[in-house]
Design goal:
Length: 343
């Protein structure tokens, strides 16, 4: 990857190939592996539970959840289980009563194949294509959802950061408005650039067997020869150790080098922190955007509507620390929820 600007269509094709290639390892080593990522996912899911229950119980609405960048279907799996549970004997409505459908969109056929496998293994096959919908395609081409059930569209776990650079991120904000324009709610949850030094460096160093050796680590002589570099341990947040030890395997899984030590190049680290642009020696890249940048996209694409932009720690002081969340409210229902849970 040269780092030179490329057009959005080319970036889309490149990123789809990258995610198809790393789908299985991403599912195994990040979604169900890295402790910091798992804490972030738990934070998002708990927050979404509260939001959906607020809309169902307090506002008396039936809801459709639409997961933009749904990947391996973690929200489909989470809420699909509610659909097959026996209804509560309590009088108040539950998620099983009020959440009518979970739909999702992703551009990676391999990620969607994993989603269908996960749903099948959970015994949720009968709900696929009825209450659990999965669609392959581009978020940029989403059509507006019907006004009822109330559409709640979410782009979680830094989906915007892998949305074909700033041009794609800007288009995602516009697309999120379009998909709920009948009167729904949109939420974008992403990493904050201020957390690059404390969270991103160790996060990507720990998972280079999925996304490749980060550009700020040297030497790079074994990084791009079809090898896989497997870290011996996860680096946790705020770990400032400038080195990490990896074992190197070739494309057939055979050992190439054991105990290979990589170290951070201070200039490349500074550039990554300054720009929020994570690059590896494969075609994988991610961006951690500043709050000011999200404010600019909110103003450009969500103007004239009620919006909220919160640091993650305002909703969860520990697990939400590296996050920021943008909300678009075309329903007129969200202010009470924000007032209740934001600190």
């Amino acid at each position: 990857m040269t780092g030179q600007p490329i057009d959005l269509a080319t970036a889309f094709r490149r990123d789809r190939e990258v995610w198809d290639a790393c789908a299985s390892s991403y599912e195994d080593h990040i979604v169900h592996g890295h402790p910091e990522v798992q804490a972030y996912l738990d934070f998002e899911e708990d927050l979404l539970d509260r939001l959906l229950l607020y809309l169902i119980r307090d506002c008396g609405r039936e809801v459709r959840l639409h997961d933009v960048g749904c990947g391996s279907g973690r929200l489909h799996l989470r809420y699909g289980r509610h659909f097959v549970q026996r209804k509560s004997m309590r009088a108040e409505p539950s998620l099983a009563d009020g959440l009518k459908m979970v739909s999702g969109l992703d551009f990676s056929a391999q990620m969607l194949a994993i989603a269908r496998r996960n749903l099948g293994q959970a015994g949720l096959d009968p709900l696929v294509d009825s209450r659990l919908l999965l669609e392959e395609g581009s978020a940029f081409d989403m059509l507006p959802l019907p006004a009822s059930p109330l559409p709640v569209a979410v782009a979680l776990c830094n989906t915007i950061g892998v949305m074909q650079g700033p041009a794609g991120a800007s288009r995602l904000f516009a697309a999120m408005r379009k998909v709920v324009e009948a009167g729904g709610i949109a939420m974008v949850s992403c990493y904050d650039q201020e957390a690059v030094a404390s969270f991103a460096l160790g996060n990507y160093e720990s998972t280079m067997d999925v996304s490749g050796q980060p550009r700020w680590l040297v030497p790079a002589d074994l990084a791009d020869r079809g090898n896989t570099l497997v870290p011996r341990a996860y680096k946790r947040a705020y770990d400032g150790d400038p080195t990490i030890v990896v074992d190197v395997k070739d494309g057939h899984g055979h050992p190439v080098r054991q105990g290979h030590v990589l170290r951070r190049d201070p200039d490349l680290v500074e550039e990554t922190i300054r720009t929020g642009h994570v690059r590896t020696h494969t075609d994988y890249e991610s961006r951690w955007y500043s709050r000011a940048q999200l404010d600019a996209w909110i103003a450009e694409h969500w103007s004239g509507a009620t919006t909220f932009h919160l640091p993650g720690r305002a909703l969860d002081a520990l697990r939400g620390m590296p996050a920021q969340l943008a909300f678009l409210d075309l329903s007129g229902k969200l202010a009470g929820f924000i007032e209740r849970y934001a600190r």
